[in-house]
C-alpha cells in the first residue's frame, strides 16, 4: 500500500513528496484515538507537530500550525500531487524564528494585516513573511504574473531557491481549502461552487504547469520543479470517524433541521464540550487553544441551529441561502481558566445536502471560489 501523505513538517524527500497517496486518510478510524484533543507534548515522529500551542501570538500560532500541522491529507482515490516537504534544517530554522517572533508584541515580522483580508491571502502573507526571513530558503518572487499580449496566463504564488538537496529552484502553489464529505465520496466546498477533485485537477493541469510555459522560461530560465501546498480542513459527516492526527482535532459537518445534528450533539457530549464558538474566517485555520472567545458563542448546537435558521443569519453572497457557520466545540482545560477546542464543526443550512448531491460530478469551471474564503 502506498505511504500516506505527510505534511510540510515531515522528514524530507527529494523533489517533494506525493500528497494523498492511496490509502492515506484524513482521520483515523473510530476507536483509534477517537475524540483526542490536540497533542501538545511533542510526542511525535514529526518535529514541530502540535507545536503551535507553545506560542502566544496568534499570527505565530497560525504560521506554526500551517507549516507543521495544516497540510491536507487527501482521502483515498484522490491520486497524487507533488507536495512541499521541508528538510530538517529548514524546520529547525523556522522553529527558531517562531520563538523570536513570539516575543514581538507588534508582529513586526509580518507587518499590518487588514481585518477584512481574505483567509487565503492571509495564508499567503504568513508563508511569504516566513520565507522572506529565512536564511535557508531564498524568496525570489511572490504572486508573479505570467503575461502574454497583455493577457495574464497565470500567477506564480511563490518562486524560491532552496539550499542543499531540497530541490533547487521551485514554484510553490498554495491553497487554503475547506471541503465537506458526501456519501458518494465526493468533497464539496461549503458554498457549493467547487469540489476537491476540481481543485486538484486545476492544480495538476494548470497551476503546477506554469513553469513549462515559454514565457516563464524566458523570465526565469533554468531547471524548475513545481510543488503544491494544500492546507485547510476536510470535514466528515457527523457521526462518522472522529479521530485526528497530531496537531489536529476531529472535524465534522452537520445540517440544520437534520438528524446529523443529533449525532454531532452526542459526540460533543462525549467530548465534554460546554460551549460552541462561532469562528470568524480569520480563525478558521488552527484549533483554538487558550484563545480569547469570539464575539458570538452558543451554549448548545441547538442554539446555533436556531440562529442559522432565523431571519438574521448571514447570507451567501448573491443568494438568499444562509451561510454555513464554522463552529469550535470548546471545553475548559484542566486548569479551568482557559478553553481548548475539542471538535471542529461546520453547520450548514437546511437543504444543503440535497443541493450538494445535485452538483455535477465535475464543475471545474467554477473551481476556486467558495472553499477559499
Head-to-tail CA distance between termini: 35 Å
**Alpha plus pi helix count:** 8
Structural class: alpha+beta
- Kindly give the count of domains: 2
> How does the major sheet shape up?
10 strands, mixed
Low-confidence stretches: 1-45, 363-373
Strand elements, count: 12
Beta-strand proportion: 15-25%
Calculate the mean pLDDT score and round it. 83
Order of helices and strands: EHEHHEEEEHHEEHEEHEEH
Helix content: 10-25%
- What is the overall shape? globular
Q: What's the Cα radius of gyration?
A: 20 Å
Question: How would you portray this structure in words?
Answer:
- The chain is an alpha+beta fold.
- The chain has two domains: 17-232, no CATH class; 236-366, no CATH class.
- 22% of the residues lie in helices and 23% in strands.
- The chain is built from eight helices and twelve strands.
- The protein has helices at 58-68, 88-102, 119-133, 196-205, 214-219, 260-270, 301-308, 352-357, and strands spanning 17-18, 82-83, 137-148, 151-162, 169-181, 187-188, 225-237, 250-255, 275-278, 297-298, 325-332, 339-348.
- Strands 3, 4, 5, 6, 7, 8, 9, 10, 11 and 12 form a ten-stranded mixed sheet that branches. A two-stranded antiparallel sheet has the order 1-2.
- A hairpin with a 6-residue loop joins strand 11 (325-332) and strand 12 (339-348).
- The longest helix is centred in the first third of the chain and has 15 residues, at 88-102.
- The two termini are 35 Å apart.
- Residues 1-45 and 363-373 have low confidence and may be disordered.
Name the features.
disordered C terminus, alpha+beta, 373 residues, 2 domains, ten-stranded mixed beta sheet
